[in-house]
Amino acid sequence: MNLSNDSGALSPYRVLDLTEGALALCGKLLADLGADVIKVEKPGGDTSRTIGPFYQDIPHSEKSLFWWAYNVNKRGITLDIETSDGQEILKKLVRTSDFLIESFPPGYLDALGLGFGSLASINPSIIVASITPYGQAGEKANNPWCDLTAWASCGAAYITGDIDRPPLCMGFIPQISAQAASELMTAILIAHYERELSNEGQHIDLSIQESGIGVLQATVEMWDLAKLDYRRSGDRWITTSGAARRLAFKCKDGYGILLQGGGGSVRMVRASQSLVEWMSECDMAPNWLKNFDWANEYDADTLSQETIDRVETCIEGFLLTRTKQEIYKEGWDRGIMIAPVKTMEDIASDEQLIARGFWQKIEHPELEASVTYCGPFVKMSETPLTSRRRPPLIGEHNLEIYAEEMQMPKETLAILKSSGAI
Q1: Whole-number pLDDT of residue 236
Q2: Which of 11, 126, 176, 296 has CB 3.0 to 4.6 Å from 34, enough for a Cys bridge?
Q3: pLDDT of residue 7
Q4: What's the CATH number where 303 sits?
């Protein structure tokens, strides 16, 4: 397909987005790529609109920053698919759509006559992507869930947190939902490629639990092959000798440095020696540390906890005399493996992100203001991605889609609105 330079990679295609929460990230990524993504909400708006924080701290369904983040670049309509009129409208939309993504419980759409089989009979090339906590089948398929329980179900919580504390989720961010949603986008694009060859659609069944297991790297294999029960270690790195090395250290302006110091490899030895040289120049390295044999005394296979604690006490004492920016700049010049742990304030003013034009302002006419958003997830030379549309208001594009594109009489729309179908 030959697209012009000002067209998104997916600009000829339409997506019906019936997901909620952070699972709406899938549709957002497709919209970033240029697809015409139509967010389908119940009349009155998606429940995700009630999730804070809110613009200017004013709780309102049109001011949820959470909802904005996952629905930028989309158009929006209201539709109650539990009504017979709503079901017929969705079927009409499917005729002119290429993808439908949904996060309803297994069997929900089938019970409404809107399952993949029914939709495929209307549009044989439709790709229906279902994302659920545990997949479409199995004894847990219909269990209630939230991001935390899904995080726990895949083992991720077990390896997240401090070694002497209970398991944790990853803070406020719905990490596992976002991870699964991004994988769903990948599956959709693969299915789309296959459709280009066969002209046939298909059903995608993505389990959030299975997606979470997929990002645990080798921890599952460690148990399967060696019965090694990998445990959470917080800001520590557990060496092969069983000792715990710190990764995060305090500095003058708070926790700000992630430092990978150590021995064994040539690169690690050089970085550690450079750090000690800097400490020596500032008269903050004891003689035993100046003469420390990093290659042999700090080898992960034989390293003792006593040695680690002794070395780290000296390092932190030095870092507490410097700001994280000072440490980063000097560390970079000296070849030390060190970097600041950035706060959200730091990220907002990050020179690299600004240089790349990552932050993009989008006008919100209804607020008489512009709002800064994270830009698209990738840069593409031939099909550039843009933040071209702010998140839709509730039912904002009802007239545009129903009346203009579907050519439904306004009198009919008035009846459908009064009945609660739209």
Answers
A1: 85
A2: 11
A3: 63
A4: 3.30.1540.10
Query: Is residue 397 within 8 Å of residue 38, measured between CB atoms?
Result: yes
Q: Looking at the domain assignment, is residue 219 inside a domain? A: no
Q: Domain span at residue 35?
A: 14-214+356-419
For the stretch 374-412, pLDDT in tens is 999 999 999 999 888 999 999 999 999 999 999 999 999
Locate 418 and state its tokens: 């009064």
Which position has the token pair 């709406």?
Answer: 24
Measured in degrees and rounded to the nearest 5, phi and psi for residue 52 equal -85, 180
Please give the C-alpha separations between residue 53 and each of 134, 146, 170, 302, 374, in angstroms, as whole numbers. Answer: 29, 18, 17, 48, 16
Res 211: pLDDT? 94
Same domain, yes or no: 328 and 361 = no
Amino acid identity, residue 308? I
Tell which residue, 53, 64, 67, 59, has the closest CA to residue 22.
67
Residue of 49, 6, 14 lying closest to 31 (CA atoms): 14
Q: Is residue 2 assigned to a domain?
A: no
20: tokens are: 């909620």
Position 228 scores a pLDDT of: 83
Which residues in the chain come in under a pLDDT of 70? 1-7, 259-265
Angle at CA of residue 106, ends 101 and 107, nearest 5°: 105
Q: pTM for this one?
A: 0.91
- C-alpha distances out from residue 167 to 66, 144, 378, Å: 25, 20, 33
Report the distance separating Cα 364 and Cα 375, nearest Å: 16
Tally of residues, the chain: 422
* Alpha carbons 347 and 199: distance in angstroms, whole number: 44
User: 112, 109, 101, 104: which is closest to 13 by C-alpha?
Assistant: 101
**3-class secondary structure, 137:** coil
Number of structural domains the chain divides into: 2
* One-letter amino acid of 16: L
Tokens of 107: 């069997």
Instruction: List the structure tokens of 336.
Output: 């030390």
